[in-house]
Amino acid sequence: MKLELRTEPLRKVRLMNKVPGVMFGKSIESTSVQVDEKELKEALKTYGKSMTFKVKLDGKTHHVYIQNVETTILKPHEIIHFDLRRVSETERMTALIHIELVGKEVFFDSDLYIHEAINEVHAEYLPGHGISKIEIDVSKLQLGDVIRVKDLSIPSDVILKADPEQLVLDIREVKLVPEETEDEEEGIDIASDDEDAGDAE
């Protein structure tokens, strides 16, 4: 992704279909930048907010990741500002990795359901070696099956910073609570009437 130094007012930047942002990090001053909106959205789609990638600014290449994006309530798909955090090639970084369930539609008309204990996990890795998400195929899981952190499939150069025995999800059975019948409700009313009569005596 190619960045440009921002020298124009925000309003003019947005009229050019560019998004204003800031790049910052260790050994670098906070720098106001701008980028083509299409390029930014493509980078966000590809790398998310956890994977590092390369950007160019004034002929220099930097390793960065998207730390934050700002949108509006009325137009949530329109990015109005972004933050890029620069990291060195030897600096290990940590990020929250989203856990995405694949095949969960098989449980939509079932008496089983997926109980999710966590949907993201902290990971540590070097720039260029991160992942944007961790996928779990749940389509073949059955009642009582359990997935823990140690069962997650990740690249060898990514370290999960969580207890290996921590529960990620398990498969449970839907249990319906029987509704009270009219007779039961009437029985409660009758008992109340008898108590009231006893009190009157």
Short description:
The chain has 2 domains: 4-87, Ribosomal Protein L25, Chain P (Beta Barrel), CATH 2.40.240; 94-173, Beta Complex (RNA Polymerase Alpha Subunit, Chain A, domain 2). Helix content is 18%, strand content 41%.
Topology:
Layout: E1 4-5, H1 10-15, E2 18-25, E3 28-36, H2 37-47, E4 53-57, E5 60-71, E6 79-87, E7 93-102, E8 112-116, E9 120-125, E10 133-137, E11 146-148, E12 159-160, E13 167-173, H3 182-200
Parallel strand pairs: 2-6, 7-10
Antiparallel strand pairs: 1-3, 2-3, 4-5, 5-6, 7-9, 8-13, 9-12, 11-13
Structural account:
By secondary structure, the protein is an alpha+beta fold. The chain folds into 2 domains: 84 residues, Ribosomal Protein L25, Chain P (Beta Barrel); 80 residues, RNA Polymerase Alpha Subunit, Chain A, domain 2 (Beta Complex), CATH 2.170.120.20. It has 3 helices and 13 strands, in the order E-H-E-E-H-E-E-E-E-E-E-E-E-E-E-H. The strands form 3 sheets. The protein has a 6-stranded mixed sheet. A 4-stranded mixed sheet has the order 10-7-9-12, with no helix packed on it. It has a 3-stranded antiparallel sheet with strand order 8-13-11, with no helix packed on it. The longest helix has 19 residues. About 4% of the residues have low confidence.
Count of helical segments? 3
Report the average pLDDT across residues: 86
**Contiguous runs where pLDDT drops below 50 for at least 5 residues:** 190-198
- Beta-strand fraction estimate: 35-45%
- Can you say what the CATH homologous superfamily of the largest domain is? Ribosomal Protein L25, Chain P
Q: Enumerate the strands of the largest sheet in spatial order, edge to edge or round the barrel.
A: 1-3-2-6-5-4
Distance between the ends: 88 Å
Level-1 CATH class name of the largest domain: Mainly Beta
Please write the string of helix (H) and strand (E) elements.
EHEEHEEEEEEEEEEH
- CATH topology (level 3) name of the largest domain: Ribosomal Protein L25, Chain P
Radius of gyration: 27 Å
